[in-house]
Structure formats: structure tokens, C-alpha cells
Amino acid sequence: MPIVPVSPDPAQRLGYLLPAFINLSLPNAAVEAHSWTRTNGNQTLTVAAGTGIGPDGSESFIPYGKMARAALMFLCTDAVVTGHPIIPVSQTYRGFLKQLGVTWNARNCANAIRQLQAVAASHITLTTTTEQDDATSTVDNERFTISFRDHMVFRGARDARLAEPEESHIELSTDFMRLVSEHGAVPIRADAWRHLLERSKTPLALDLYVWLSYRLYSIKMPVRISWAQLHQQFGSSGDVVRFKAKFRAALEQVKEVYPEANVKEFGDTSRGSTHGIMLSLSKNALDSRWASIGLCPAT
User: Fold this and answer.
1) What are the CA-CA distances from residue 261 to residues 112, 208, 209, 270 (Å)?
2) Number of C-beta neighbours around residue 162 at 10 A
């Protein structure tokens, strides 16, 4: 098993995400439509594209991929850690990528800034449907935008200053800050997450890591989840057969940073025709044993 680097900076040991963005992740790849939904059990996340993205202020798209997840983690974490809605954005492109935990290069830079603006501009609806014993259904909708305003100053050179003399910043919406306070943000091992961000080719390993970190340490009894359910929750495109292969590869990456994750397939494992996965009680990912490489477990 590869040795996973651990951040020497204690402030970088934890990131935070809202439960809704753990159980219902963003798209893996670009979406042509301007509205997109993801369903998990009785909850559905709908993301509508915002406007005012890029220097011309006209581009509009659904945030997607690894950079969108890095941007969302960045905004949620700052909101939790500071308790303040105004999130400063580094005055340099290199500094901005460092804020996101992303390796510097020009391609990463351009994509990361576009995805940050797309995340900030998104209109979100979280729908929860509850079936009652008397055959009636209750539908609850929470609607919010992530940001109220953003102020971004662009310069030509990718390693030049983003803002001079003023500072770029994003001001989170009142509704988003209220959700952070009321729903409670989930702590995530930031060093482990950034390791997956760096190594994984697709966002699936990132999504699995935060989901398993959230679920496994509090499970009361083993939970079985079918491949069809997993595909609905995590697979943006492709059939279930292709999804299985991608899921298995992503899970192997996750176990590099969370070896205690107790996840097994159930069904005919001898022939590989399994029905899905079984989750069982596991050690908290925040206390994963690879945390002992030079540091105490995060708290």
C-alpha cells in the first residue's frame, strides 16, 4: 500500500462539506443542459446553472468534475472555519490553486476558476419526500444559491496577480450560511481528500471517500446497497456494467487512505456477479491508522 503524504499544517487537516453534497454529489463530467438532478433514496438534488461566469459575464454551466468538488470543499470549509460569509480568494493564480489543494499548471488554473464561479453561481434545490403511514406523501424543498455576490479581478498572465490592488472574494448567501449552521457540516480528512484529488482521474474516488467517511463509523448494522442504487447515486453516465468497474477501481484508491473501510461485495463473489456492496461499522476515517505517519489523528 502506498504511503500517503500527511499535511504538516494542522489547519489543513480537516475540510467540511454539507451532508447534501456528500449523499448527492455534483456531475462527474460536463452537462449540456442547464439543470441537472441526482437522486439518493428519498432525496433529490437539483442544480441549475447560474450566470456571470468568466470575464465576459455571460457563460453559464453546471459545475462538474474534480475542480468543482475542490471549489465546493473550499467554500464550505471556509464558511465553517471562519463563520463568516466573505471568502477571500488569493491574489495570485498559484495561491488560488493552493487554496483548493490543486497542483499548479495553466490548465488547472483556468478550469479551477471557472468551476469556482460556476459553483458560487449555482441555484440548488434539495427535495426530500417522506411517505406517511396513511399513504400520503410529504415533500419538502430547500432552495438556495451558494453565493450572494462575487468579485473577481482577472489579469492576463496566469501566474500574475488576480487582483491588484483590490482583493477577489466570494460572499456566500445568507441561506447557504444558515444551512451550514442548521444542518451541520461533516468533517473530512483534508490531506486524504487532497491525495485522492491529485491521484484520481475521475471524481468518483473523491465522492466515495467523503460518503464512506460520513456513513461507516455510525452504522448500527450492516447495510446492503445494490449496484443499481449505487449507479443512480454516483454514476453520471454509462451503464451499470461499466459503472461497476469504475466503482471497484475508485474503492481501491479510497482504501489507500481509509484502509479500515469495511466495504464488501455481496452475492456470487466467486464468479464476480455480485448484487452490490455491504457497508459495515468501521473505524472513523478521521482516526484512520495512516494518520500516525508523523502526526496524531485529526480531531
Assistant:
1) 30, 11, 9, 21
2) 21
Query: Is 196 within a domain?
Result: no
Contact (CB, 8 A) for 213 and 186: yes
* Co-location of 126 and 218 in the same domain: no
User: Could you tell me if 41 and 102 lie in one domain?
Assistant: yes
Cα distance between residue 165 and residue 177, in whole Å: 28
Question: CA-CA distance, 224 to 211, in Å (whole number)?
Answer: 15
For residues 45 and 121, state if they share a domain. yes
DSSP character for 45?
Answer: E
Q: What range does the domain containing 252 cover?
A: 202-299
pTM over 0.85: yes
**pLDDT tens digits in sequence order for the chain, 299 residues long:** 444 444 444 445 789 999 999 999 999 999 988 899 999 989 999 999 998 877 666 778 999 999 999 999 999 999 999 999 999 887 677 777 888 888 777 777 778 888 999 999 999 999 999 988 878 889 999 999 999 998 887 665 544 444 444 578 899 999 999 999 888 899 999 889 989 998 888 899 999 999 999 999 999 999 999 999 999 999 877 788 899 999 999 999 999 999 999 999 998 777 768 899 999 999 999 988 764 343 333 33
